[in-house]
């Protein structure tokens, strides 16, 4: 009994360290990927977008309680950031924050893609099963791609701040209404709006192009980050009209979801996340069904 009491902690620690080492190794190895055959990029039409949204709504209806638990943190983070911006006297960053928050949406919906994948395959699709499946080879590439989106989000906020500084700055605002008045009634304010909207559009196009199918693809196949990004860009390039329509749907739905203090995102984000999985399934076909 004494030998087991002394030996077990040492053995247990060694096993845990070895397991962690293997996990880190799988995560790093997954970034490059093992999928050799390049997927086929398909044509998608507006009908495919409607079908993806319908399937996304069905997934949400079937998995509602688990899904809400999984995404509840996303609107909470958005609300906290908005309150912080207002209390810090950075009112001019409120609109860039709200407009730019969808930039990290594809990363926030990773668990939803896995739940849709499992439901489609007839596997248990509760939040616990979804999270447990996001380890090993999936963790590394998903974290790397998520970090990329976070960098883009931070760059957008810094760019928006620079536009404000070059137009209405350095004047600070304690009231959102006063800021809106100056934006609409002064030359500097109108310049800020034009530059901000144009620049925000470019950031949105970038994120839409790199995130349209890349995250679901990483969940589905061991493709690695480079192939996932290249395929997502190829889908956007081959389907400019459908991509633009999807972008407007996503942005419009997310912005509407933010209006009641970000609470609407608890419903909007799951439907869009599940729909993104189904859109990926229509946009990309792999020539080797047995792989992954």
- The amount of beta strand, in percent, is under 5%
Instruction: Supply the number of structural domains.
Output: 1
Question: Main beta sheet: strand number and arrangement?
Answer: 2 strands, antiparallel
Tally of contiguous helical segments: 15
Q: Enumerate the strands of the largest sheet in spatial order, edge to edge or round the barrel.
A: 1-2
Anisotropy-based shape: globular
Transmembrane segments: 67-87, 93-113, 134-156, 162-180, 192-219, 245-272
Protein name: DUF2189 domain-containing protein
InterPro entries: DUF2189
Keywords: Membrane, Transmembrane, Transmembrane helix
Tell me what the structure shows:
Keywords: Membrane, Transmembrane, Transmembrane helix. With 292 residues, the chain is mostly helical. It has one domain (33-285). 76% of the residues lie in helices and 1% in strands. It contains 15 helices and 2 strands. It has helices at 2-32, 46-62, 64-71, 73-87, 94-100, 105-108, 110-120, 127-132, 139-167, 176-185, 187-211, 214-220, 224-238, 240-258, 265-283; strands spanning 40-41, 284-285. Strands 1-2 form a two-stranded antiparallel sheet. Helix 12 crosses helix 13 (224-238). It is globular.
């Amino acid at each position: 009994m004494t030998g087991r009491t002394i030996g077990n902690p040492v053995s247990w620690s060694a096993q845990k360290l070895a397991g962690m080492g293997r996990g880190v190794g799988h995560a790093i190895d997954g970034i490059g990927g093992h999928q050799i055959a390049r997927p086929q990029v398909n044509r998608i039409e507006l009908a495919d977008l409607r079908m993806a949204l319908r399937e996304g709504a069905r997934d949400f209806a079937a998995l509602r309680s688990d899904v809400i638990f999984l995404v509840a943190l996303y609107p909470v983070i958005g609300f906290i950031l908005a309150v912080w911006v207002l209390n810090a006297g950075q009112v001019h960053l409120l609109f860039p924050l709200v407009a730019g928050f969808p930039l990290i949406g594809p990363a926030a919906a990773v668990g939803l893609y896995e739940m849709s994948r499992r439901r489609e395959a007839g596997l248990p699709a509760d939040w616990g099963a979804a999270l447990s499946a996001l380890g090993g080879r999936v963790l590394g590439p998903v974290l790397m791609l998520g970090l990329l989106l976070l960098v883009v989000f931070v760059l957008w906020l810094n760019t928006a701040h620079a536009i404000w500084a070059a137009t209405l700055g350095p004047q600070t605002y304690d009231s959102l209404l006063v800021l809106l008045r100056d934006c609409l009634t002064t030359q500097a304010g109108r310049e800020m709006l034009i530059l901000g909207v144009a620049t925000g559009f470019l950031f949105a196009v970038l994120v839409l192009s790199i995130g349209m199918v890349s995250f679901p693809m990483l969940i589905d196949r061991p493709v690695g980050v480079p192939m996932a990004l290249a395929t997502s860009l190829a889908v956007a390039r081959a389907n400019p009209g459908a991509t633009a329509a999807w972008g407007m749907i996503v942005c419009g739905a997310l912005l509407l979801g933010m209006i009641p203090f970000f609470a609407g995102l608890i419903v909007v984000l799951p439907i869009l996340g599940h729909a993104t999985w189904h859109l990926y399934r229509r946009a990309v076909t792999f020539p080797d069904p047995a792989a992954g």
